[in-house]
Structures are given as C-alpha cells and as structure tokens.
Write a structure and sequence with these properties.
The chain is an alpha/beta fold. Helices cover 37% and strands 24% of the residues. The protein folds into two domains: 86 residues, Nucleotidyltransferase, domain 5, CATH 3.30.420.40; 153 residues, ATPase, nucleotide binding domain (Nucleotidyltransferase, domain 5, 2-Layer Sandwich). The protein has a six-stranded mixed sheet with strand order 6-9-8-7-10-11, sandwiched between helices. It has a five-stranded mixed sheet with strand order 3-2-1-4-5, with helices on both faces. Strand 4, helix 2 and strand 5 form a beta-alpha-beta unit.
Length: 257
C-alpha cells in the first residue's frame, strides 16, 4: 500500500492506495503550529480505526503548497514509517510537459491534478479545482500544461464579504432555490453561487476559444471540496472527481518507482 498526502492551505488530504484502488482517505485541518508528533498521532489513530497496519505502508508521496509543512511531514515519514517520501517538485517525473514562462512557479497540486486528468481522460482537458483558491489548469491536445488562472476561493470570498462589511453575516454556501434572494442570507448565497457559476462558465468559454479545439474532444473536470455543487448547473463541467489529487499522486508515485 502507498500513502498519498496532499498538503493544502486549508486542508491536508491523505489517501491509502492498495495498488490502483483508493481504500480510504482522511481530511485534516492545516495547522502550521502542529508538531510532527501531533500530526503523527492523528494519522496513526485514523489508520488504526480503518484497520490499516502501519507496517503495510510501503511507499509515501507528498505534494504541498505550504513550504513550512514539507519538513514536518518529511520528518514524520522517516520517524514513524521509516521511509523517505517522494516530494513532488523539480526532478520528479510527473509525465506532464510544462510549457509556461517559469515551470517552477506552478503549484505542486496543479501539476498533480494535471497528471491525473491526462492519465484518466487524455487531452485536451481542463481541471477546475475548488480549493482555498479556485484554479483553472489547461492541458492542450498535445498533453502539454500551458497555464491557467487563479481566482479567489469561494470560502475566501464569503469571509471577505463578512469581514469587509458591518452587517453582512458569514453564510454557508449552497445552491439557492431561486436566483433572486428574498432575504439577506439567500441574497448572499445566490450572489456567491450564481456569481461563481457565471465566472466558471465564462472563463471556460474563453479558454475554449483560445485552445481552438474540438469541444467534443475536450473534458472539463471539477475537483476540490465545493466542486460538486456546480457540476449540475454548469454548461461545461463534465464530471466531479473528488479524489483527483490523490489519484494524481498515485500516478506520479508509480512513475518514480
């Protein structure tokens, strides 16, 4: 079995694979102040509760957009699993050809998503990741990562609306029954949901124009915590893949072993 770890700004997602099958996954809050031992105690408990033997983990791969936690988890892998993890970054084989101004600037999670999307759906493909930031990653018909967009995440927008105003509350995101809200809560929910939906479809339309590809060949994949609520309404999102990043980590692990 291999342990895949994706360290994000808001959450840390872990998945255990038995060959190519994801058998369980966990989600932890990202905490810069937690020590190696504190993270280890939580992870060991979760593995135990899911009847996964620590000794059964034969490989570990990590992607991170939080540099300070790479050391923490690197130490955790060595101390508790007696293994040197693969850290996604320069020098690691990903199978993704990166054609942008500075390839080192691309977040590890975005390359991991691209690797999974190419493996599963081929190219061209667009990945929309609804995380702390909402990102669009574009892979052309030649399976080259050619860039993308970075937008404020949905939860960040809700928090900014709340903290930047005197009377607007912080609300839960969800799909409203109507576009026109009849009170403050539903008005905010509608503005966030339909505002983001329009942004998503509008951006994808412009990407399609730039790619000049046959839309019948193009797949548009949604991933990330809030992606599922937009797939049904969007004109372009084809499918929701909640474990795309974990799947990408497995693909890259295999390429490096």
């Amino acid at each position: 079995m291999i342990l895949a770890i994706d360290i994000g700004n808001t959450n840390i997602v872990l998945g255990v694979f038995n060959q190519d099958k994801l058998i369980t996954s966990f989600r932890l809050a990202t905490d810069h102040l937690k020590t190696t031992d504190e993270y280890a105690s939580i992870i060991m408990l979760l593995l135990e509760r899911n009847k996964i033997e620590q000794s059964g983990i034969k490989g570990i791969i990590i992607s991170s957009v939080v540099p300070s936690l790479i050391y923490t988890f690197n130490k955790l892998c060595r101390k508790y699993f007696y293994q040197e993890p693969i850290i996604v970054g320069p020098g690691i084989k990903t199978g993704v050809k990166i054609h942008i101004d500075n390839p080192r600037e691309v977040g590890a999670d975005r390359i991991v998503n691209a690797a999974a999307a190419i493996k599963k759906y081929g190219a061209p493909v667009i990945v929309v990741d609804f995380g702390t930031a909402t990102t669009f990653d574009v892979i052309d018909k030649n399976s080259c990562y050619i860039g993308g967009l970075i937008c404020p995440g949905i939860k960040l927008s809700i928090k900014a609306l709340h903290t930047g105003t005197a009377k607007l509350p912080e609300v839960e995101i969800g799909k409203p029954k109507r576009v026109v809200g009849t009170n403050t809560i539903t008005s905010i929910q509608s503005g966030i949901y339909y505002g983001y939906l329009s942004m998503i479809d509008g951006i994808i339309e412009k990407i399609i124009d730039e790619l000049s590809c046959d839309t019948k060949l193009l797949k548009v994949i949604a991933t990330g915590g809030l992606g599922s609520i937009f797939v049904e309404e969007s004109k372009y999102l084809d499918i929701y893949e909640p474990n795309l990043t974990l799947e990408g980590l497995r693909v890259i692990y295999e390429k490096n072993n």
